[in-house]
Design a protein that fits this description.
Blueprint (H helix, E strand, L loop, with lengths): L4 E4 L2 E2 L5 H12 L4 E9 L4 E8 L1 H18 L15 E10 L3 H18 L4 E5 L10 H4 L7 H4 L21 E5 L4 E7 L4 H11 L4 E2 L20 E2 L6 E8 L4 E8 L7 H14 L4 E7 L4 H14 L8 H12 L9 H4 L1 H5 L12 H9 L7 H24 L8 H36 L6 H42 L5 H26 L5 H32 L1
Parallel strand pairs: 5-7, 6-7
Antiparallel strand pairs: 1-4, 1-5, 2-4, 2-5, 3-4, 8-12, 8-13, 9-10, 11-12
Helix pairs in contact: 1-2, 2-3, 6-7, 8-9, 13-14, 13-15, 13-16, 14-15, 15-16, 15-17, 16-17
Amino acid sequence: MTNQLIECVPNFSEGRDMSIIKQITDEIESVEGVKLLDVDPGKATNRTVVTFVGAPEPVIQAAYLAIKKAGEVIDMSKHKGEHPRMGATDVCPLIPIANISMEETAQWAHKLAEQAGDGLSIPFYMYEAAATKPERRNLATIRSGEYEALPEKLKKPEWKPDYGPAVFNAKAGATVIGARDFLVAYNVNLNTTSERRANSVAFDVREQGRVLRKGDPIDGEIVRDENGEPMREPGACKAVKGIGWYIPEYGVAQVSMNLTNINVTPLHVAFDECCKSADRRGLRVTGSELVGLVPLKVMTDAGRYFLQKQNWSAGVSEEELIHIAVKSLGLDELTPFDSKKKIIEYQLADEQSSPLVHMSLRAFANETAKDSPAPGGGSISAYVGALGASLGTMVANLSAGKRGWDEHLEKFSAWAEKGQAIKDKLLKLVDEDTAAFNQIMAAFRLPKETTEEKAARKTAIQAATKYATETPLRTMQAAFEVFELAEVMVAEGNPNSVSDAGVGALCARAAVMGAWMNVKINAGSLADKELAADFVKQAEAIAQQANILEQKIVKMVEGKM
């Protein structure tokens, strides 16, 4: 079964005393199977956002221990901070990350709340996908009145907690637990110290907008509907919540936003809307900051967006897309932006599982030249294919940026993006091919004393051999995609770089033929001869077409030179 993965992002009402936060995060890290990804304290808000991930069971245990410890070391009766809050652990959302549905995640949220409600003297409310009542889905509704309103609130039947006692806990307050989609906490910096002016920008941008008033937009009489409810003018961005505040530690006012659905309103769109609103009000956006982590897609989408605004090719590397996003959004204005710490996929990535692609060219060549069988022809084939894709991508980018070819920008940018995707696919296969070989070696080292051990060893060897045959076949398939890119670049791309596209095609053929040899030799060790024959048949078909396309592209290059 594929491993399930959930993320937990508890917010603790302490952002100034890191010794207190350390006690809480120590509890989280004490649970095996949980990885602490980020600890993001804020002095002005007096609040720390912690992010950790793992399988559901250990995540729930870690969250329980963190909530318990926070109730012991944080005293809410003495808490002051800019951010709305109602408890030592103010909110504790669970987010589905991999191979788990929102419904299952909500069930785990209830398991956590039930365990905490039974074991701790704290009231717990459920929100978002885990809400027990429609009116409790919204966190702001539950948190209305904040900590100070809890003594009276808990006396009301409609505010009976979902779990735990309906009794005011002066030290720990109350906690909201839920299940929700990935939320991006994002602050945009303004060149003002006025909280009121920052709020005006927030009202322009957030979905809820602002209350309609007659005459003066601040002090005028509120416009009400037929039921007496205040009428509102919606803001520019759906799925965005926001307020304005002043942050003394930075000396600036900010628009503080929660982007609750980045597919509806991406980060860069919210940023641009803040810029538009600020400009209308004579203000200027100077930068922004991310609180906690973001998915990689948030950054790469932003990078593409700003490159397109510059009328430039978006077919650049992942690293360059991130760099463009950071500089365009001003994410490094207040503190340095470390992508390895702020992007969730980078936090979860294990560089030890892909050592080859993290080597220098010289180190990779030296490693290949050692008296060991791996990395061998399979990994080299994948790398040669990646170089072929890189050459085709280079020509696409040169064509997109060629003076006088502005009308072709979109077409060549799209080809460059495709080339980047092929390159990244092949780079992953560099290490995967070596990992497949190592898996075979590990299977051969299994014990074989008893009948059961022999059977298990044989099964493991065959499974590893199948994997080691499939991997170079995937290298062939990925490298074959380079031919289409190379052919279009030779035919339509920048004529000054036609030979580079031709070399890309030569690299693609070398990758295909090298991987084909690996498929053939590994398939020969498969006990399932029908499966082996199918692998070889697929590989031979790709190899034949590769030879044809390489010769065709070389002739095209010769005709252009």
